Amino acid sequence: SDEELDRRIRAAKATLGDRLVILGHFYQRDEVITYADFVGDSFQLAQAARARPDAEAIVFCGVHFMAETADLLSGPSQSVILPNLAAGCSMADMADIDSVTECWEQLEELYGTEPDASGRVPVIPVTYMNSSAALKGFCGEHGGIVCTSSNAATVLEWAFERGQRVLFFPDQHLGRNTAKAMGVPLERMPMWNPRKPLGGNDAEAIQDARVILWHGFCSVHKRFTVAQIDRARAEHPGVRVIVHPECPMPVVDAADEAGSTDYIKKAIERAPAGSTFAIGTEINMVQRLAAEHPEHTIFCLDPVVCPCSTMYRIHPGYLAWVLEAFIAGEIVNQISVVDSVALPARVALERMLAAKP
Ligand code: 13P
Ligand code: SF4
Prior knowledge:
The chain has 357 residues and is an alpha/beta fold. The protein has helices at residues 2-16, 30-33, 42-48, 64-73, 97-111, 133-141, 152-162, 172-181, 203-207, 226-235, 249-254, 261-270, 283-292, 316-327, 339-354, and strands spanning 20-25, 38-40, 57-61, 79-81, 121-128, 145-147, 163-169, 211-213, 240-243, 257-258, 276-280, 297-300. α3 (42-48) runs parallel beside α4. The N and C termini lie far apart (47 Å). Iron/sulfur cluster binds next to loops.
């Protein structure tokens, strides 16, 4: 029963004390968030992974790429545990190392490998945090960097200082929305088409590209529409519409603001009491914000509940299981990135952490 699980998790946490830290992403359900020692967006959770070097283990209540990142950034003797190994991210799965390598080789054929007169290389690869460690490693090896939704513009600036163009994967929407806000015209953001190799892609557009987009997207954020925003404005005059930058471009353009999960949270916290918000992001987070802020009216843009089904795979039952196993001396569901990938992946992550806004 829920009560029994609650009792077991609390008892395990009390037994473990500071030996173990539980991190939770904003999209986790309340029944999991209640046990988290730290809750944040993916950038904050990456920082949190190294904030407790004394802890023997980090239990990551989030998805696989986040746990991998925690493993990359935590100490060598710390273990990272993902309570349910089936908690992946469908967007992260839309780019794999083989297809990115193939794309890269074709771009090298197109643009060559020589820097221009000001020392900028032909292409800088930028991977969204929502990607496998292998892709972060690819970026580390090829002069590239990682970004999250909270620092994408800073990271793109970093990349434009060093490269004539950017190859951005896997999320086309974050890439497009961020580059557009920085003044890159849409016609200079062609999308790489893996089914049309070199020559089949629009060669002219690729030649003139500033940002080459990948075809990935988030199935949760893809659901938000301009019609939903129009309806929210009609039904709630004065409503502030805030969406996540993983939403399609017309939705971000129609919204009042776009930002990471932490940006959304802070915008709500800063608002005068009595504000009304329509939010375009995952439902568990929106419902929690609504419950935490009874002084505001907060609702999800999508009237049909839209959870992230993979985030939802972290259930208190799994949490109880991994904690009790740890007490018994067994580390279950450990996420460990092999050294050959971890070394270059850390380089790309460190570049992100050092990039200044
Ligand atoms: P944040 O970086 O805003 O936490 O978003 C992570 C994510 O997976 C959004 O879908
Ligand atoms: Fe991945 Fe979308 Fe879920 Fe975020 S909300 S973890 S991008 S599937």
